[in-house]
Write a structure and sequence with these properties.
- This protein is α/β, with parallel strands linked by helices.
- The protein has a domain of 239 residues: NAD(P)-binding Rossmann-like Domain (Rossmann fold), CATH 3.40.50.
- It is 38% helix and 16% strand.
- The strands form five sheets. It has a six-stranded parallel β-sheet, sandwiched between helices.
- Helix 5 runs parallel beside helix 6, helix 7 packs parallel to helix 9 and helix 9 packs across helix 12.
Length: 365
């Protein structure tokens, strides 16, 4: 039908709302009529290079380290840029694409987006609850200025999509404690919680006013063995494993019956990527979604550890973090996340304790 000098190339690419998809969802089909060659390739790298890179800000933290590694696995290392204010990457990210970046420097951030063709930003840089109480002025500046700098990039169409995490810290002592609903009284009592509640409203405002595609989940306490705790009120649930393996004992800064919502990090990372991969029309809440995993007390966690590590002992010496914990929920209702974008947890208390005891490296203490 066609002459030998004519070439017909047909390219079929599966996109959904121009959002990042899994590499195996993208195909390119090429036909060349002057030969018998037919080729079918998966080309995630080409497609992501065309669409832009993913920038993770705050990659040195507990969440950031694991998120970068998960995104690299999902989309390819060449498509993910890790960044933090620190001049060098963490050991776990030593082979990642890394650059030093202060999110409060709007000009530098804009330059990185332009230079590397960034289309999505995961903004994790923040001062956490307990640390923020020691330096409230800086905590507010970091937590809010960084968010505005990123939201404004999306407002002016320099990037396409933003992930910004909120926290159970948005809730306060007047919030219903059990199965805390998605929409409820908040009244946070910490600078971290105040900044997160304010951030939620700004995210919703930028979405409604400027059409910014910003997505958020309220993380509960997160538990992981890949990095040391970063200054949160729920960090005892990480710290306890290091001490259990090193000395078979632990002194907890919360009282034994302080119930808090928790989640194993792998579930949190999966939820983060899942909400970002979901079609925009499925994201019906633009403040932040409740997200639930498991809820337990220090006493219940210690008992679960003792089942696998006989002789483990725990003492209790509540400090200023007890007041923060007392203002937070016991458990979370995350039905909206389940309904809107299919969220479900995988790790319960027993499964989490097993993984943590098997993998925590006590020599890091």
């Amino acid at each position: 039908m066609f002459g030998s000098n004519r070439i017909l190339t047909k390219i079929s690419c599966k996109f959904l709302a121009f959002s990042h998809r899994r590499p195996n969802e993208y195909k390119i089909l090429c036909y060349r009529t002057h030969s018998t060659m037919k080729c079918l390739y998966s080309l995630p790298n080409i497609l992501y290079n065309a669409m832009g890179k993913i920038l993770v800000i705050g990659s040195a933290g507990q969440i950031g380290t694991e998120l970068v590694l998960a995104l690299e696995k999902e989309y390819g290392k060449s498509n993910v840029i890790a960044s933090d204010v620190k001049p060098e990457p963490t050991f776990a990210l030593r082979e990642s694409n890394y650059l030093a970046l202060d999110v409060m420097n709007a000009e530098a951030l804009d330059g990185v987006v332009k230079k590397y063709g960034v289309s999505e930003i995961y903004l994790l840089a923040a001062l956490l609850s307990a640390t923020a109480e020691k330096n409230p002025d800086f905590a507010w500046k970091l937590n809010m200025d960084g968010l505005f700098n990123v939201l404004n990039l999306a407002r002016y169409k320099k990037i396409e999509k933003v992930f910004w995490p909120s926290s159970i810290a948005v809730f306060g002592p007047t919030t219903p404690k059990d199965m805390t609903p998605q929409s409820t009284i908040m009244e946070p009592t910490t600078v971290y919680g105040i900044s997160k509640q304010s951030g939620e409203q700004w995210c919703n405002y930028y979405h409604c006013k400027y059409g910014v595609d910003v997505r958020s989940i309220r993380y509960p306490g997160l538990i992981s063995y890949t990095s040391l705790p970063g200054g949160g009120t729920t960090d005892y649930a990480v710290d306890i494993f290091y001490h259990a393996k090193k000395s078979n004992s632990y002194t907890c800064y919360l009282s034994e019956n302080t119930a808090l919502p928790m989640m194993y990090m792998e579930d949190a990372i999966r939820a983060t990527i899942q909400i970002m991969q979901s079609p925009a029309e499925n994201i019906k809440i633009r403040t932040s979604y409740n997200l639930a995993g498991m809820s337990f007390t220090p006493k219940l966690l210690a008992e679960a550890i003792t089942e696998r590590l006989p002789g483990f002992g725990i003492n209790y010496a509540p400090d200023f973090r007890q007041k923060i914990a007392d203002s937070w929920p016991n458990s979370i209702d995350d039905q909206d996340a389940k309904n809107d974008w299919g969220w479900s947890m995988s790790y319960d208390l027993s499964a989490m304790v097993k993984v943590m005891l098997e993998n925590t490296d006590e020599s890091l203490l």
